[in-house]
């Protein structure tokens, strides 16, 4: 799960936030959700998982896990 601005066109969504969310889905284990720190503060029980390298992103991203 990633938070941020997106572009909407003809029912599809685009932008870096969408790309980040897709990369988090790729890394999440079955039955869990990975999210960025922006969303973790709103999710009691989210566990810090540290910085991860995600495909096509130049810098590591702080991640949190639910489930």
Q: Could you explain the architecture of this structure?
A:
It is a single chain. The protein has 67 residues and is an alpha+beta fold. The chain has one domain (7-66). The protein has two helices and five strands; from the N terminus they run ββαβαββ. It has helices at residues 16-27, 37-40, and strands at residues 7-9, 12-14, 33-36, 47-52, 61-66. The strands form two sheets. Strands 3-5-4 form a three-stranded antiparallel β-sheet. It starts with 6 loop residues before the first strand and ends with a strand. The mean pLDDT is 92.
Oligomer class: single chain
Biggest sheet, open or closed, and with what strands and sense?
A: 3 strands, antiparallel
Fraction of residues in helices?
10-25%
Shape: globular
Sequence stretches where pLDDT stays below 50 over 5 or more residues: none
| C-alpha Rg (nearest Å) | 12 Å
What is the terminal separation in angstroms? 13 Å
Number of helices: 2
The chain-level structural class is: alpha+beta
Number of strands: 5
Overall pLDDT confidence: 92
How much beta, percentage-wise?
25-35%
Number of discrete domains: 1
With strands numbered from the N-terminus, the spatial order across the biggest sheet is 3-5-4
Order of helices and strands: EEHEHEE
InterPro entries: Nucleotide_cyclase (IPR029787)
